[in-house]
Specification:
Length: about 300
């Protein structure tokens, strides 16, 4: 099997260039010369028989094959780093490695870590931000906290923590706040709303629930990740669609308002683990997370 892999040094150079966008930055990260990185890329392209980059001005742009390899290489290196970190911690640390989407980690999980430590003092977490979808094996993780739609992969044992609830939110600093705060939901069709490419169906699904035609929706500024979308809403850039738990603290503080409330969506909050994982901490963590999500 090892013989079928591309040269590993070349893969490492490719991943760095794909992530950083140019040869010089990759060379500095890897502590090798610009020319050495270039030679590794040529070696990898020769081995695979495909072009991975095309020149674009002074930079490089990934080809379709390059993007495909980037996804696989980044996932593999992340898993290797996480596994190596767990091994370095050693069995005495016995931290439970929990993966979360970055927005869930930053806006919901981290603010509750003090309470978790008080309520479950024997459970130590190692939190891993996940930018991509979780793989079926949850590689490198003991469990994953996420929002998803059934059915779950057959390889997972899922603890359902609650229903997903979403709704439009905006800041009192937004120029259109006064007009929107007392308006019916149909008024949103006159707004160019903020949106995220990671949840493209959030706005259409919410509009259908409220008897509005998604085709009339005007999309304004888009963001790759939900975290940035919510930061933009707090900054007063416009109306965003958000899961209720991720904005609960902002609503309580007045940084955001939700004039039309929240309604059940098609997703669920899950704590997922590999089906064969019998770690007794996982159901206890699931029960705690379920209670936290039920808090108003």
């Amino acid at each position: 099997m090892v013989g079928n892999l591309p040269p590993l040094n070349a893969l490492r150079a490719f991943e760095a260039v794909a992530r950083l966008g140019n040869l010089g930055a990759a060379g500095r990260e890897l502590h090798v010369t610009h020319g050495a990185v270039s030679r590794q890329l040529r070696l990898l392209e020769d081995d695979l028989g495909v072009a991975l980059f095309v020149r674009e001005g002074r930079g490089l742009r990934l080809t379709d094959a390059g993007r495909q390899l980037q996804d696989a290489a980044q996932a593999a290196f992340v898993r290797l780093r996480d596994t190596a970190a767990a091994l370095r911690r050693g069995p005495q640390a016995s931290a439970l490695v929990l993966g979360c989407p970055a927005s869930v980690l930053a806006r919901w999980m981290i603010p509750r870590l003090d309470r978790l430590a008080r309520d479950l003092p024997d459970i130590t977490l190692h939190l891993s931000a996940q930018e991509r979808d979780f793989d079926a094996g949850l590689t490198g993780l003991d469990a994953a906290l996420l929002v998803a739609e059934p059915p779950a992969p057959r390889e997972w044992k899922v603890h359902v923590l609650g229903s997903e609830r979403i709704g439009p939110v905006l800041s009192p600093r937004y120029a259109g706040h006064a007009a929107l705060a007392q308006a019916p939901t149909s008024r949103l069709l006159e707004e160019a709303v903020l949106h995220t490419t990671s949840r493209p169906q959030a706005w259409p699904n919410w509009l259908r629930q409220h008897g509005l035609e998604p085709a009339r929706l005007q999309l304004g500024t888009g963001f790759e990740h939900l975290y940035y979308l919510l930061e933009a809403a707090i900054a007063g850039m416009g109306v965003a669609i958000a899961p209720e738990p991720l904005v609960a603290d902002d609503l309580a503080s007045g940084r955001l308002v939700a004039p039309w409330g929240f309604s059940d969506a098609t997703g669920q909050w899950w704590l997922a683990a590999a089906r064969g994982n019998a770690d007794p901490r996982i159901p206890r963590l699931a029960a705690w997370l379920q209670r936290e999500l039920a808090q108003p």
